[in-house]
Amino acid sequence: RMHELLEKYPVGKVSYLTSSLMSPVYQVTASAPVNIACIKYWGKRDTTLILPTNSSLSVTLSQDNLRSTTTSRSSSSFEKTRLWLNGVEEVIKPGARLDRCLAELRRMRKENVEDKDPSVPKLSTWNLHIASYNNFPTAAGLASSASGFAALTASVAALYGLNAFPQHPSSSYSPPADASQLSLIARQGSGSACRSLFGGFVAWEMGKDSNGRDSLAIQVAPESHWPSLHALICVVNSGKKGTSSTAGMQETVLTSELLKSRIKDVVPSRMSSITQAILAKDFDSFAKITMQDSNQFHAVCLDTFPPIFYLNDVSRAIIAIITELNRVSVEATGHLVAAYTFDAGPNAVIYTESENIKTIIQLLLNYFPIDFAASPFNDSFQLFGVGHPSAA
Ligand code: DP6
């Protein structure tokens, strides 16, 4: 009977774990990578539904590193819903972000699957056991909420038969048509998470509705579109950041005048220009807009009262090095070679094309020599292609 049901409702990789007929356990594992925004999300117009004050656009990094992998299990025998992050059990606060995401997924399971076919197991009424791991390099110090909530949403959605993620990560991956619908849920876990449900180049459209039904992620171009584009992550500081994104962005909304003009006069045109640049694989425009938007994001942080500082002296030195490299390159060839961008912390992400990776790493090592004996190379630099989420 279980096998029949599973065949009828293929939901990614679902395993039937126990032999007890009274309490079968269903399980799905999914993984999602980190994404790095080129047009930054900073500010909410609704803090509960997580509706942003502006649209944003990011690149999903390749699977190799910096991803979250989440296994979700459902059984009528589980006494309560539990969550483990990197092996440590977390408290699930009623009404908080995770609880809201799970409530939405249960509602979708009930409406889209169980109400349509009363013979399927009522997973929406069963408790869940969820375990999530980040494979981040030990010293990455990079945000995990985007990949974490994306992997969690993808795995519970697949468990509930709400989408059809492929069984194995592969280059033939294409996002399920309803990943945008799932992005509505991941968004309520952490805004930037909605973009990690897609691979490649992803826009989060801010939407207009007060209920958030149109505030979702769409894929601008798949990861195969621009294979020569890479992201080099330079770990400047692996510690926890001072002001969290969630708290910082609301301070900005409340106090920054500059944010108002950014939202109204700047971001809408940048969204369309960078989309054009990506579609045309125009690195010069892509790089210029990316750097300008990072600069403006940190300018609105400075315009927040009291001000928020995420960049440090090393971050600013990296900006100076990349700026000088680009100046020399424009003089010689007319083209930019690299684009820096910084999120809510001092670590730099440098976008560049394959042929320039070596030059950039050599240049950075010149200024910031690494003691290879004390600090393995991998902890300080990480290189990524453009990637996609998957079921494992
Ligand atoms: C600077 O998505 O972490 O990385 O929605 O409150 O969870 P919450 O915030 P979060 O903010 C990310 C901010 C950013 C820019 C970006 O990724 O677009």
From TrEMBL:
The keyword ATP-binding applies. Pathway: Isoprenoid biosynthesis; isopentenyl diphosphate biosynthesis via mevalonate pathway; isopentenyl diphosphate from (R)-mevalonate: step 3/3. One of its GO terms (biological process) is sterol biosynthetic process. Keywords: ATP-binding, Lipid biosynthesis, Lipid metabolism, Lyase, Nucleotide-binding, Steroid biosynthesis, Steroid metabolism, Sterol biosynthesis, Sterol metabolism. Residues 231-392 form the Mvd1 C-terminal domain. Its EC number is 4.1.1.33. PANTHER family: DIPHOSPHOMEVALONATE DECARBOXYLASE (PTHR10977). This is Diphosphomevalonate decarboxylase.
